[in-house]
Write a structure and sequence with these properties.
alpha+beta; 5 helices; elongated
């Protein structure tokens, strides 16, 4: 017995797929639907896949912090594993999995850096403790013990007190995945899933459907 499939609001009966020729408009509908669904604890969670100089892959969960027709934005420490890999090989893949709605969105594309002004604005919006943690952590580097991190945080709390502004670290900022392919996956009964694929071309988005 298969789990019930939630109706897809972007796939009304008789709708021609070409009537939704902008994948960002379609993503916006699914994204809003996920945010409105109280069953989904963190709709912004997405898998991010990168590769090192030898092509060895690595994947982790990050949070979507912005999306518009330019691409999908997240923030990180540039000296972390993902930061180093993206700077060396600026290609990435993303996957959103909203299990409760039986949906996935897959993104494949080039990676570019977010403007300093946008990174500054987002960093300033983070909770104060998160900003201190960004300074304290040598992300992805070996940690001898928890006391080392605690001591760094204590030093930073003394340095900035309760009211001094905390600047964005020079090693921290954002990346934007500029998609060349976006796939929308909707679960169907007996593995008859719907897979709609958008591929960027010089003349616009080419739309097709894949076998499940």
């Amino acid at each position: 017995m298969t789990s019930p499939v939630r109706p897809d609001p972007t796939r009304l009966p008789g709708m021609d797929l070409r009537s939704l020729d902008d994948p960002f408009a379609r993503f916006g509908l699914w994204w809003q639907d996920a945010k409105d669904d109280a069953r989904i604890g963190e709709p912004a969670a997405m898998s991010l896949a990168t590769a090192d100089a030898d092509g060895r892959p690595s994947v982790r969960i990050v949070l979507l912090r912005g999306v518009d027709p330019r691409g999908f934005v997240f923030f990180t420490n540039f000296e972390s594993r993902k930061g180093r890999e993206l700077q060396a090989r600026p290609q990435a893949a993303l996957c959103f999995h909203w299990e409760q709605q039986h949906r996935q969105v897959r993104v494949d594309g080039e990676v570019v850096s977010v403007d300093d002004a946008d990174a500054d604005a987002y960093f300033a919006s983070r909770p104060r403790d998160s900003r201190l943690s960004a300074w304290a952590s040598d992300q992805s580097r070996p940690l001898d013990d928890e006391a080392t991190l605690a001591a760094r945080l204590a030093e930073l709390e003394t340095l900035y007190g309760d009211d001094k502004p905390i600047p964005r670290p020079p090693f921290w900022g954002g990346f934007r995945v500029v998609p060349r392919v976006i796939e929308f996956w909707q679960e169907g009964p007996f593995r008859r899933h719907r897979r709609d694929r958008y591929e960027r071309t010089p003349s616009g988005w080419r739309i097709g459907q894949l076998f499940p």
